[in-house]
Specification:
Helix content: under 10%
Number of strands: 11
Strand content: over 45%
Structural class: mainly beta
Largest sheet: 7 strands, mixed
Length: about 120
Amino acid sequence: QVQLEESGGGLVQAGGSLRLSCAASGRTFSIYKMGWYRQAPEKERELVARISWTDGSTDYGDSVKGRFTISRDGGKEMVSLLMNSLKPEDTAIYYCNLYSFGMGREFWGQGTQVTVSS
């Protein structure tokens, strides 16, 4: 199994910045991708950003392109999400996600709340 520990959520004013981190532990030897999804009240969960463990390529949701940056922490099984120019519509629960090709499944963190006030 894989455990994901998230940190860094909180309350910030519009235009501000936050950094989220996610550390993976357990059977992390076959990570394919790690990233973040978010879910706002009464909305479906959507991709925020993810990064490939094999070649470092990244994907971003259209609404965060140019504002958010995902990065991998060196040789550790950890990803960070730097969120700049935050908007009230970024308010959501942010979930860390890991896909393991060795186990053929994905894992989810418990989620961290991000609230952006106007």
